[in-house]
From TrEMBL:
Taxonomic source organism: Kribbella amoyensis
Domain Penicillin-binding protein transpeptidase: 359-617
Domain spans labelled Glycosyl transferase family: 74-260
Region (Disordered): 748-790
InterPro entries the UniProt entry points to: Beta-lactam/transpept-like, Glyco_trans_51, Glycosyltr_51/Transpeptidase, Lysozyme-like_dom_sf, PASTA_dom, PBP_transglycosylase, PCN-bd_Tpept
GO cellular component: outer membrane-bounded periplasmic space
Name of the featured protein: Membrane peptidoglycan carboxypeptidase
Lineage of the organism: Bacteria, Bacillati, Actinomycetota, Actinomycetes, Propionibacteriales
Length: 790
């Protein structure tokens, strides 16, 4: 027989002998941890076999330690924990605390093995003589085993099994205690016990308890404080000094007298400690738990949702949540308190929590995707919704239609296809697009009766820049048809745009460029950030690093970027949207500072939501004001900042939120400017459009198709001097050219401006010839768009 087996059998036999003696003596189980009555039907031999069948080693889970979420500057956002615990080494615990816990819980701890037979019998005798429980019978090692088994339990059934008053469990605990005593020294066991024990009021472990009750550390505990904590472990809730100071003091004084009885302290020391108050309520430190107690609750919840997506934290959401709250990890985030404060100040200046309309702002960093700020007008507790994020995240509201902010993606698609920035389209106040077929990625789409109109006064023969400055609907509807809805959809998707409710791609409908689907401030600000980063799109990022309790890095998704648009295309978009904020543009009143800014307004149908999205090279932001309570109604008449809204617009309603937030967020940052678009981007990659003016439509279509374009006939007729039924002009105009493969629209003349039958006589004044040194205008060429014909 091996020595270890022989030793184990000796321990087992000693235990069984002790149990048998206890039963025969008729001692009652009250006050003793082992229910002897259950052993009456068991022989010594059978009990010995039961013990020997138990595992030889106690397998414990790591201590549950609180985790922290930090801002980018290291300041605390939130604590996350199931148990508030701060593990410490035994050397970091004041010796008086060690002596106090040993004195009251197991004064012969350093003298006996796993079971203190003498102490247990003494406890039985005293408890019987006193008629109540005065002393416990479990050793500190046994208590540690029990606490470990409870800590390991994950389900209600496992907790019941770990605390069941059965002899099988008691014997199992004792066997585990034997194993623990063999594996660890007494000091190691005491250290584990003091870190594991529940000290009441949410404090686990002696360090957390010292901080919580006394605003001190375990190393600096006084005698009175140590005695208070030592008394707590027997009944953490019953002796909690924050609930019952008298009961806590009485229990503390019992500990002090026991320490005096054991000659650990003198009578004077005991009396002096007894005279001190048990607790100073001014020194109680609460450790807020969870995002609800955070300074930034919505941002915090978004961070937690991203952590739960990380497979490194568990095989499923339940395991991951347990890990996050017990592993003592430190989570560093991208939140910038300065930028967050700027955004919050804007919300405070322009909204009130009691408004019927809501306001929300997200700010991200171009080139990284780092989410710097996330704020909203409805505070946590007044609503559970986070109005900045998608519905796929807990509490995510799921967005609003984005209105004309969608035009930026049409601009990008047009520039990507080679359309020049001065691309002209005749843009009337209203246009009839009823029953027209528009190309999509999968075929065609069409609307029924559809006669959209402009919300601004800018109409007529406009360039892309003109139309963006005035947000001219009829221009961008026609441009999106020329470019193709598939191209617009692909650009938007490459910049992270999708439906925030369904997580499906944005629908390719005729009105796509005027707003489609439901998007969030986070999605929109991050998409616009790609323009600022010269086409580099980065996945939105809130969690930057995660480290273990030991300081080791844990794998987590980091900055992830791709070149979604060429730098030249992005430069062109920046040029167009920059003019939106120049005098005469819809965003002109929002311009500030000396850095280049670009942006776009957005208003959805019936004014149920209004937007402003804009950026510099350093920060990009999207602000929305919307009705977020069904049935959704027009913002006009609703309350914002305590006042009734008389006119809802992207520039006048959402714009001020954006401007105040960005002005303060960018304060102190170096001046930045956009890269000027190349000559090729400005002029476009165009080829000649054949001259078809005055031709029959069929012949004109053939000629245009032979030149590498597609063609269609515009509905109705236009006033023109060309013969009735012939081509009056094309869109794009012949003088501007068009990218190869573009859709060329033929406008048919009604002949209303036809030439008179007899031509007028030539003028009598003969113009002198131009001096030879002045060159004549060359034939039309794409590089000289002001020369040539239409």
């Amino acid at each position: 027989m091996r020595v270890r087996d022989r030793d184990d059998r000796g321990v087992v036999q000693s235990v069984v002998l002790f149990l048998g003696v206890s039963v025969l003596s008729g001692a009652l189980a009250a006050g003793l941890a082992i229910p002897f009555a259950g052993l009456a039907g068991y022989t010594t031999e059978k009990t010995s076999e039961t013990l020997e069948d138990l595992p030889q080693e106690l397998k414990t889970d790591p201590l549950a330690v609180k985790s922290r979420i930090l801002a980018a500057d290291g300041s605390l956002i939130a604590n996350l924990y199931e148990q508030n615990r701060v593990p410490v080494k035994l050397a970091q615990i004041n010796p008086i605390m060690r002596r106090a816990i040993v004195a009251i819980e197991d004064d012969r701890f350093y003298e006996h093995g796993a079971l203190d037979a003498k102490g247990t019998l003494r406890a039985l005798v005293r408890n019987q003589s006193e008629g109540s429980v005065q002393q416990g019978g479990s050793s500190i090692t046994q208590q540690y085993v029990k606490l470990s088994l409870i800590e390991k339990a994950r389900t209600e059934e496992e907790v019941k099994a770990a605390t069941a008053e059965t002899y099988q469990r008691k014997i199992a605990e004792l066997r585990y205690a034997v194993a623990v005593e063999k594996e660890f020294s007494k000091d190691e066991i005491l250290e584990k016990y003091l870190n594991l024990a529940n000290f009441g009021d949410g404090a686990y472990g002696v360090e957390a308890a010292a901080r919580h009750y006394f605003s001190t550390t375990a190393a600096k505990l006084t005698l009175a404080q140590a005695a208070t904590l030592a008394g707590l472990v027997k009944n953490p809730s019953g002796y909690d000094p924050t609930n019952s100071a008298k009961r806590a003091k009485d229990r503390r004084d019992v500990v002090l007298r026991r320490m005096q009885q054991l000659n650990i302290i003198t009578a004077k020391q005991a009396n002096d400690a007894i005279r001190t108050p048990v607790i100073d309520k001014n020194k109680i430190q609460k450790v807020p738990n969870g995002c609800a107690n955070s300074r930034y609750p919505f941002y915090c919840e978004y961070v937690v949702s991203k952590l739960l997506e990380n497979p490194a934290f568990g095989k499923d959401k339940k395991d991951a949540e347990h890990y996050i709250k017990t592993a003592g990890i430190t989570v560093k985030t991208s939140l910038d308190p300065k930028v967050q404060a700027a955004a919050q100040a804007s919300i405070n200046a322009h909204t009130k929590p009691t408004d019927s309309a809501i306001g929300a702002i997200t700010i991200v960093e171009p080139g990284t995707g780092l989410i710097k700020a996330m704020v909203q007008s409805k505070p946590y507790g007044k609503t559970a919704y986070n109005y900045n994020v998608e519905k796929s995240y807990p509490g995510g509201y799921g967005g609003f239609q984005n209105g004309s902010t969608m035009k930026a993606f049409t601009i990008a698609a047009a520039i990507q296809k080679g359309f020049p920035l001065n691309h002209r389209i005749n843009s009337p106040k209203s246009i009839d697009l009823s029953n027209q077929k528009w190309p999509t990625c999968s075929g065609f789409t069409q609307a029924g009766k559809y006669t959209p109109s402009n919300s601004t006064a800018a109409n007529g023969d406009l360039t892309m820049i003109d139309a963006a400055r005035a947000s001219t609907n009829t221009y961008f509807l026609q441009l999106s048809k020329q470019v193709g809805l598939c191209s617009v959809a692909n650009v938007a998707a490459s910049l992270g745009m999708y439906d925030a409710q369904t997580q499906q791609p944005l629908e390719q409908v005729i009105s796509m460029t005027l707003g489609v689907g439901l998007v969030t401030p986070l999605m929109l600000s991050n998409a616009y950030a790609a323009f600022a980063a010269r086409g580099k799109y980065c996945t939105p990022l809130a969690v930057t690093t995660v480290s273990s309790l030991a300081g080791k890095a844990i794998k987590t998704p980091g900055i992830s970027c791709k070149q979604a648009l060429s730098p030249q295309v992005a430069d062109g978009v920046n040029r167009v949207l920059h003019d939106v904020m120049e005098p005469g543009g819809t965003g002109a009143k929002l311009k500030f500072g000396s850095s280049d800014l670009a942006g776009k307004t957005g208003t959805i149908q019936a004014n149920k939501a209004v937007w402003f999205a804009g950026y510099s090279n350093r920060l990009a932001s999207a602000a929305v004001v919307a009705d977020a309570s069904p049935p959704y109604e027009n913002l006009i008449g609703q309350r914002l900042n305590g006042k009734r809204i008389s006119d809802a617009s992207g520039s006048g309603t959402a714009g001020p939120l954006w401007e105040t937030a960005m002005r303060n967020a960018l304060k102190g940052m170096p001046e930045t400017h956009f890269v000027a678009p190349s000559d090729k981007t400005v002029r476009g990659d165009v080829k000649d459009i054949p001259f078809v003016t005055g031709m029959a439509p069929g012949d004109a279509i053939n000629k245009i198709q032979q030149a590498g374009f597609t063609a269609q006939i515009a509905p109705g007729m236009v006033d023109s001097e060309e013969a009735v039924g012939t081509v009056a002009w094309t869109g794009p105009r012949r003088k501007d050219g068009a990218p190869e493969g573009s859709m060329i629209t033929l406008f048919i003349s009604n002949g209303s401006k036809g030439k008179p039958a007899t031509p007028p006589p030539p003028p009598t004044t003969v113009q002198p010839p131009k001096p030879p040194q002045i060159p004549q205008c060359p034939p039309w060429h794409p590089k000289y768009p002001k020369c040539g014909g239409r």
